[in-house]
Every structure is written in structure tokens, then in C-alpha cells.
Design goal:
UDP N-Acetylglucosamine Acyltransferase, domain 1, eight-stranded mixed sheet, six-stranded parallel sheet, 3 helices
């Protein structure tokens, strides 16, 4: 909420509470999830969404105001300078986040009311914690990172910037994950493992060894996929 001063009809000074306006960047399925969290929290007035081509998923519930290329114009037409990048692709989310923050926009922090967050956890600017996610003691979540539905991160985790922890992932204690890495649906990462930057852990994989930067691993136990850099 924003607090400002004004005068009532009798000229007396009064406090006026205004809800900050917010724009969703993205208009697909993930945007629908982000929108529900934002609406439940009632911290922002979500004015609409933009997408790559100016179209959105059916029954999104808010207007699609144009293309991503039109975002800066909305600063004037909609008086909005707060955003949420509702896009799963890590690199795309990072690029949009940095472009808008450098222009003076503010990234919203999304935490579902149905998530469990330890009081000693640290959440980065613009990260998204989805329903039934669990982030436990002394864990750090980086800028713009998504911890998706029913994913869990155990104690002392170090999760980098613009990571995507997909639905149903289980990450053990003292695990480190580098920037922009994708941990696929239902994957398991054993305690103490280090996953490098820009890595991909395939859906359902069980990671028992460290994963170098830029490497894709799949299987049980997880091993480098053919064509991976490592």
C-alpha cells in the first residue's frame, strides 16, 4: 500500500491509501498462477498483462494490454511501475527483470498463502513461491527464482538467481544451485550436492553427484545427457 496526503471536501488534511498498480509480463498458464497469488494477497492492483504476441491464455481474468515491446508505454498510460515476470524460461525472465529494474520499475515478491517459509529463510527480490512449496531453515532463494508447486528445499540451501525449481522437486539439505538452472518436474537432489549455473536436471532424475555448469543430467542416478557440454 502507498500512503499519501490529500485534503477532504472541508480542506482538512487526510491520509490516502493507494494500492500500487502491477503489470504481469506473460499471459500463459504460469501467469494465471501468479495472478491468483497476487489477487489473494491483495497487495497490488493488477492492471493487466502483456505477452510476446499480445495474446493470452483463455479466461486469464485480466486484460492483455499489448506486447512485451509495449511495456514502457504503459508507464504513462496505466501509471504502473511494478511488475511480475510470469515466464518460466529462466534466461528470458532474467533479461526482462533486469531491463525493467534498470528503468526504475520494481519487481514484486510473490509468496502463496499456501506455501511454508521458514522464518530464517531469505527470499530474493522478484522470486515466486508457489502453492504448497516449502522453504526451510537458513535457506536462501535468489532474485527472480521460481519455487513451483509442491517443491521443497531443505535446510541451508543456496539457490541462485533466476532458477526454476519445478513442481514436485525435493532438494535435500545444504544443496547449492547456480544461477538460471532448471530442476525438472519431480527431480530429487541429495544433500550436499552442488548444481552449477545454467544446468538442467531432467524430470524425475535423482542427483547424487555434483553437476558442472551448463550440464544436462537425466536418469536414476542422474548422468550427463548425450550432447551436454560435460
Amino acid at each position: 500500500m502507498l500512503l499519501s496526503r490529500g485534503r477532504d471536501r472541508y480542506g482538512l488534511v487526510v491520509s490516502i491509501v493507494r494500492t500500487p498498480k502491477l503489470l504481469l509480463i506473460g499471459a500463459g498458464g504460469h501467469a494465471r498462477m501468479c495472478l491468483e497469488i497476487l489477487q489473494d494477497a491483495a497487495q497490488f492492483d493488477v492492471v493487466g498483462a502483456v505477452s510476446t504476441d499480445g495474446t493470452g491464455i483463455a479466461n486469464l481474468g485480466i486484460p492483455v494490454l499489448g506486447r512485451q515491446a509495449d511495456v514502457i508505454n504503459l508507464t504513462e498510460t496505466e501509471a504502473v511501475t511494478t511488475f511480475c515476470v510470469a515466464i518460466g524460461n529462466n534466461l528470458t525472465r532474467q533479461e526482462i527483470h533486469y531491463d525493467l529494474t534498470q528503468r526504475g520499475w520494481t519487481a514484486a515478491l510473490l509468496v502463496s498463502a499456501d506455501a511454508v517459509i521458514s522464518r530464517s529463510a531469505q527470499l530474493g527480490v522478484g522470486c515466486q513461491i508457489m502453492p504448497a512449496a516449502v522453504v526451510t531453515a537458513a535457506t536462501s532463494i535468489g532474485v527472480g527464482t521460481i519455487v513451483n508447486t509442491n517443491a521443497s528445499i531443505d535446510h541451508d540451501g543456496q539457490i541462485g538467481d533466476f532458477v526454476h525449481v519445478a513442481p514436485g522437486v525435493a532438494i535435500g539439505g545444504d544443496v547449492a544451485i547456480g544461477d538460471r538452472s532448471l530442476i525438472g518436474l519431480g527431480a530429487r537432489i541429495l544433500p550436499g550436492v552442488v548444481v552449477g549455473a545454467d544446468a538442467i536436471v531432467g524430470a524425475g532424475a535423482v542427483v547424487i553427484d555434483d553437476v558442472p555448469d551448463g550440464t544436462t543430467v537425466v536418469g536414476v542416478p542422474a548422468r550427463p545427457h548425450s550432447g551436454s557440454r560435460s
